[in-house]
C-alpha cells in the first residue's frame, strides 16, 4: 500500500544538516539537482492505496540505494548512516 504523504515532518535537528554537510558535497548537490518525484509516477501501477501494509517511501529507498552505490557500504552500515 503506497500513500504519498502530503505532510512534511521536520526534524528538530534539521539545522545540523547545514552545519555538518558542506555546500559542495555530492549528496547535497544530488538532492538539489534531482527531482525525485518521478519515482511515484513510475511505481504507481504496482501499488494500491487501500490494500496491504503501508509501504516504505520509494523515494527514500531510492536515495538509500544511491548512497550505497556512491559509498562501499554494507547493509548494516547503510542503515546506521541513514
Automatic annotation (TrEMBL):
Residues 18-81 form the Transposase InsH N-terminal domain. InterPro entries: Transposase_InsH_N (IPR008490). This is Transposase domain. It comes from Trichococcus flocculiformis.
